[in-house]
Amino acid sequence: MLRAFIALAFLSILWLAAVPASAAVTYAVEIVGVDDDALLGTMRESSALVAREGTVDSLGALQRRAAADARLMRQVASSAGYYDAKVAFEIDENVTPLKVTLKVEPGAVYRLAAVHLVAPDEQKLPLPADFDPAAIGLAVGEPATAAPIVDAEGRIATFYTERGRPFAKVLHRRAVIDRGTQTMEVTYTVDTGPAARFGQVTVIGLEGLERGYIDRQLAWADGDPYDSRKVEATRKALVDSTLFSTVMIQPVAPAVEGRVPMRIELIERPARSIGAGVQYDTTDGFGGRVFWEHRNLLGNAEKLRIEGKFGETGPGLTSTFRRPGFLYRNMDLVANVSLLQERVVAYNSTRGQVGAGVEYHLTPRLTLGTGPQFERAHVESDEGTEDYSLVGLPSYLRYDGSDNTLNPTRGWRGGLSVTPYRPVTAGPINTFVTSRLNASNYLRLTDGDRLVLASFAAIGSIVGTSLDSLPRDKRLYAGGSGSVRGYGYQRAGPIDENAKPIGGRSSFEIGTELRTRITDTIGAVAFFEGASVTDREFPDFSQKMLWGTGVGARYYSPIGPVRFDIAFPLERRSGDAAFQLYISLGQAF
User: Fold this and answer.
1) How confident is the model at residue 285, as a pLDDT?
2) How many CA atoms lie within 13 A of 224 on its CB side?
3) Are residues 45 and 169 both part of a single domain?
């Protein structure tokens, strides 16, 4: 018996060895029958056949993969609103590599016919008269695609939390399609919870910061109807303060007598920090900055920043104090003292400034500021030596709708500043007003941030006095980093017989830059910029422009893009270098 078993096993092994193994096969894949480019793209992204196109272990494995893909493609089509889609596959074994064809018959796209919100007892929920399904991302008559229907759950809850229902939530949804009319109706069951007003606020996690600062940041008043938008505005204000590493704000169930307690949990960041940076350009050479900052000096988020600069253009020291929540929640008190020395081609100056004022945040993106300033300066130039003292009232309106401070890829920024100056003592300087209007725009040319078109324009003007009565360091100039690269600092304007910038009473600057991100950390740019500076009070747009152009590289570091630019003047004059190099942190504008 044992001998017979051994003999049988031996013969089985020989038989298996003689049977040829299934050979690996190569294949190519094609999806046909889809005219909807978006649907076709999603199908290709979801397809295992496409993702693994090339070699498969055997013909049987290829057939199984194709069958699984056909089932998946029907699901993808349904998610895009094609609920009658049919998908079949065909494998052509007579060509090399084998050809797999996914044949899709999408059918008609179903459209959204109605959106219903019902209570857990199936009763229709009362809604504001202005309610529109588009407010929750669902437009009646549009394709009944899956993603907006799922996303609407969060928007429905938000719709109610913005209207006094802090604990609103969607319990479930039901979608019903009508094959006769090729439409869909969606019903969401919503537990709105009780209406409530803001109640007692509990703050956890404060260490060095006073509770009063938190109270001043609250976007709501005690007893206001609950509104999640005010909760988010408060959270954002606390995050933007940079005082906290963690900010959580939540309503605490249950509401008591119609008031919902609020719980704020915070983790404070270290209040002190130091930092440094370096930069280089051909005109000014190497330079750098160092700073020390305390963000909670007196316990109410007072910020004191002391910054020193150094380099071939001269040293400087600036101290800035900011007290948030001064008089009003959205108002800051700002004071500054600075001592600066500037050694440039047009002049040498030593200047001291002291000022104080207020900034009012009209919206999170729009800021209005004003306050008196006194400055005393000593200026040396080819025209001689001049000492002056001025009082001014700098006033400004700034808007920042961009998505990032150092590397904006969409949105726009703008600003208007107006500063009237009056001399303290009698002398050659008259009362004058200097102003500047600037804007920059950032446009994504692709779905992501791989290709961005950035543009800027700025207009400057000085009225009330002649050019000769203006100190050299108060005139308007153009040229250099952030202005017209290709020309040295202050050199994109008129020059004298010694090739030194003269400056003017008006300026006009414009430029555009194409930014492309090659990898996650490496990018490249090409730019074209121009400017004119004139002796007139307002820009003369018929005046000849000086243009510069160039290219650059970007390294996207964790703290922002590091910029390497080389730029060339298109009209090279006496004293203009053949090219300019710039190295610094952050985009040019």
Assistant:
1) 84
2) 15
3) no
Q: Whole domain around residue 162: which residue ranges?
A: 111-191
Inside any domain, residue 134: yes
What pTM, to 2 d.p., does this model score?
0.74
In this prediction, residue 189 has a pLDDT band, given cuts at 50, 70 and 90, of very high
Cα–Cα separations (whole angstroms), residue 35 to 31, 41, 310: 11, 11, 62
Buried b (16+ CB within 10 A) or exposed e, 284-305: beebebebebebbbeebbbbbb
| 3 located within any domain | no
Measured CA to CA, the distance from residue 457 to residue 439 in angstroms comes to: 6
Q: In the sheet where 244-251 sits, what is the strand order?
A: 197-204, 259-268, 244-251
Please return the burial class of 456, using the count of CB atoms within 10 Å of its CB with bins 0-12, 13-18 and 19+. Answer: buried
d(CA 451, CA 256): 53
Tokens of 490: 């202050």
- Other CB atoms within 10 A of residue 562 CB: 15
* Cα gap 458→365, rounded to integer Å: 20
Q: Give the confidence band of 130 by pLDDT, cuts at 50, 70, 90.
A: low
CA dihedral 39, 41, 42, 45 (to 10 degrees): 160
Phi-psi region of 285 (alpha: psi -120 to 50; beta: other; left: phi over 0): left
**Does the residue 1 lie in any domain?**
no
Q: Which of 512, 588, 517 is nearest to 555 (CA)?
A: 517
Q: Per residue in 283-309, pLDDT tens?
A: 888 889 999 999 999 999 999 999 999
Q: SS3 of 184, please?
A: strand
Q: CA 539, 540, 544, 550 torsion: positive or negative?
A: positive
Yes or no: say if 548 and 485 are a contact pair by the CB < 8 Å rule: yes
Look at phi and psi of residue 208 and say left if phi exceeds 0, alpha if psi is from -120 to 50, else beta: alpha
Distance CA 95, CA 442 (A): 50
Backbone angles phi, psi at 231, to 5 degrees: -65, -45
Domain identity same for 281 and 223: no
- Give the count of alpha carbons within 13 A of 169, CB side only: 3
**Strand locations in 230-315 (E):** 244-251, 259-268, 272-281, 285-294, 303-311
CATH at residue 564: 2.40.160.50
- My answer on whether 135 and 278 are in the same domain is no
- Whether 243 and 268 have beta carbons less than 8 Å apart is answered as yes
CATH number of the domain residue 182 falls in: 3.10.20.310
Q: Are residues 426 and 332 in the same domain?
A: yes
- Helix locations, 200-339, DSSP H: 211-217, 228-240
Q: How far is CA 468 from CA 342, 349, 376, 430, 465, in A?
A: 20, 17, 19, 11, 8
Tell me the pLDDT tens digit for each residue of 492-548: 999 999 999 999 999 999 999 999 999 999 999 999 999 999 999 999 888 899 999
Residues 565 and 520 in one domain: yes
Question: Over the stretch 364-410, which tens digit does the pLDDT of each residue have?
Answer: 899 999 999 999 999 999 888 999 999 999 999 999 999 998 899 99
| Domain end marker among 53, 78, 105 | 105
- φ, ψ at 506 (rounded to 5°): -150, 155
